[in-house]
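Reply to dn_fold:

You asked what the input looked like. This is it:
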Amino acid sequence: MVRTGFLLHELDKLPGYHGNDGYYKYCVLFQPKNTQLNNAVLVHRPFTNLQKAKGKEGVLDQHEKHVYHKYAVCDYKTAKESSVNPEHHVDAMLSNEWKELYKKNLEILKSVIDAIVFCGKQNITLRGRRDDRSSSNSNTGNFLSILNLLATHDPVLKCHHESGKRENQINISESFIDFVNLDRTTGEAIADAILKSLTDNGYTYQNLRGQGYDGASAMSSSRTGINGRIMQVAPYAIYSHCQSHLLNLSIASSCKLPAVQNMIGSLNGVFLFFSNSPKCQSLFEKVLDQSDDYKGNEKKLLSLCKTRWVERHDCFNTFHELYIPTVTTLEVIFSPHEFTDIIGNEDWSWDSDTRTKARGLFSTMKSFEFVTAFYATKQTLYAIRPIAVKLQRSDLDCYEAYNMVDSTISEIKDLRDSLDTKFSQWFAESSKLTEAVGGSVARPHTAQRQIHRSNAPAQTTEEYFRINLAAPLVDHLLSEMDTRFNHESRTAATLFEVIPKLILENHDLKNLAEKLLYWENDLPSPLSLTDELNHWKKSFFYSGPVADKSYRMYKAVQSRHLPQHL
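and this is what came back:
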């Protein structure tokens, strides 16, 4: 009989098979966790029939093929190595590693805190001017600039700073290949030009593993577009639509509501009125300087960017901040005699066309329908802004991006569920702003048959705008986000399931292996994929914090000396 109470250095003295009562010592010592194997021969009960021991169908040979036996042998070797060389034990290595990491991070944290405290004492901002902090050519702000300066005299901080820059860019390179003049812009012509260019430059297009274009049919169509034609010769070149572009399309489509479209058109008209006239802008700044209520730093309205909706949200914020001074300036232009306290004895004469435009824009900005559409759109798109900013980053992890998309969709759903309460707050703020510029809170005139705006019946003004404006806007945005970012359209999302954090939660690795066999030709050992996934998962059971981003898996593979294709 194999004894279970013994020291690790006695393992070699125990036979794998002993007398007429046979046990495998590895499987006895490191028994499988599967409760269905509680009565397994050679593990929980002895093997006694020697006639069935050897041969192709022999019990011993069959037992050695079981996965739990292979795991037990691996665990035995690991335990033996840890006993002979305790300094190589995972716990010991992790303990020392964590101590060094703690010491290093403490030094880095002190520098970070010093930079923050310095900015606070000097009353200067932390942030920079760009959304994308990965560019070394942009002004990244006071905080990061101070850290960069400290890093020049602090080796630990410098190493941390440089490794952070490299972490997200591991194994990724981007190179310009060719510039091709196109006689035609059909999907077939562009696809042929791409494949010819790749061949001429020495690339094998069968090795393509991805394509990225916008959503135009000539580009994205799986039948006649570039996407479909290239996949006919390179079946693994999976098409992926730019996620930031998808977000812009979702927002643009949801803003086709007539009231919202009219508001955006008027907003752009106000911007152009001041932007195209230095004289109007000069008067605007004079009004701001003499305003006792305005305490902000903005002096100009922002344009509505046609491609980046994060810029549009900045426009909404600036416009909201400057709303009352803007209305005041428009009124000064067409009624200067009523504002001698602002213009004094200066000659601010205007031509009739400018006065007429100013009066029209003034009337629009006093309209409660315009104010409500503006405020409701601004608040609805507020949930989109964080992801709109982050999707512009060049170093964004794909898995992280999809998680942010899901989080944003969930936030919009929460907004829709609580819209009655939320819109009451929006309505109150819109009413306050309208009254501040001399307008009146009222719903527009409704006709029995209306084609240019929503006309659902309502008992109150608040109910009218909630039903005809806010609810359709949020519903349309949610529908667009759900449709464009559905899980079926997520390119190669199966690969995310091998991220350590996710694979630890996966209880069906066989199914995962079957899905990953889509890339069978890229795998060095497709038949052993399930075993490798099991090995990969098991290596994280007791390893402490695990990687939760796709780009961090590279280091995890290196640290465990695992095959690079895992």
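The longest helix spans residues 90-121.
Hope that clears it up.
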